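Backbones bend. Our protein:
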Amino acid sequence: MKQRPLPENLSEKENLSEKSSEKKQSRHLPWAGPLIWLKERIQERPLLALLHRALVDFQEDRASRLAAALAYYTAFSLAPLLLIVVGVAGMAFGRDVALGFLLDEIQRLVGREGAELIRTILQEGNQEQRSLISAVVGAVTLLIGATGVFNHLHEALNVIWEVPQEQRRKGLLGAVVTRLWSFGMVLSVGFLLMVSLVLSAALAALDEFVRGLAPSLQVLLQGANLAGSFVLVCLLFAALYKILPDIDVAWRDVWVGAVFTGVLFSIGKFGIGLYLGNSSISSAYGAAGSFVVLLVWIYYSAQIFFFGAELTQAYANRQRHKTREGGARPGLKPSSPPSHSPMGWTAAGPSDASGIRLDL
């Protein structure tokens, strides 16, 4: 069970009593002193307190299991998802151009074998249907499969935000609405891929133009390409954090989590690529090695995404404590007295929400 922020009516007498208790216990426990010192240092740094709160929630929500489930769903949704994404992006540039661009990006992330696996999956999934019935069945299967990933993301974000059951979409209508939102997100990914294609094509043409005039400008163009990719990633994360959960998340909270997650994702994809490039996963699994590598990359990327969601939730709670007295905003985790464990970390309360208290 998650430890909650301290209630606002915690008296000064209780605070003094806790400090006195910490000092007394620190005399008997040799390791208590360094932990109390660490607690005080974290209290002085709101960013560290926020990251710690997000990490604790990440562990208590078992977000690593949510990431593993997402990798499993992705294994079955990959072909229909990419078929729709490539189809949307190919409306402007043609399917072959969109597919080539997508495979180049995948190769940078998971290597040549992973890109070839994606190419094979797309070729098998793009076979023409021989009859009307098979075409209809294929279209329905394509729709359900493509939205499976976002449907799981919807449920996972509800878990992270602890959305009450009565507030979640239920019944047949709720399932249909969720699938429609998920399909909308699939189309949005295709649109972002199309925008990325436009930017890359424009920058490539500009690069050819300035290469003979001012070679030094090529560095600026490469920086602009990276910045454009980063902005698109942040836009995608912001849309997922805002739209998928069954609560009303403020945009100011969403952007903080989206930008931070974008930074982590940009750093993490190089780290994951470095790890996969120097590991023996592919050779250990033989013919299935490239598929396992792809799942490992999705698994670690999903953990980054869910940590960003936990950070968004922690930041939203902290801002709520600063601006409101009592009463939880719908969908946000309410304040309640902390559970006193032998060594439990809890937030220091609305008046100093950036702090951390250590119960020894």
Residues 171-211 form the longest helix (41 residues). Residues 3-19, 22-27, 325-331, 333-360 have pLDDT under 50 and may be disordered. The chain has twelve helices and two strands. Residues 279 and 320 are 44 Å apart (CA to CA).
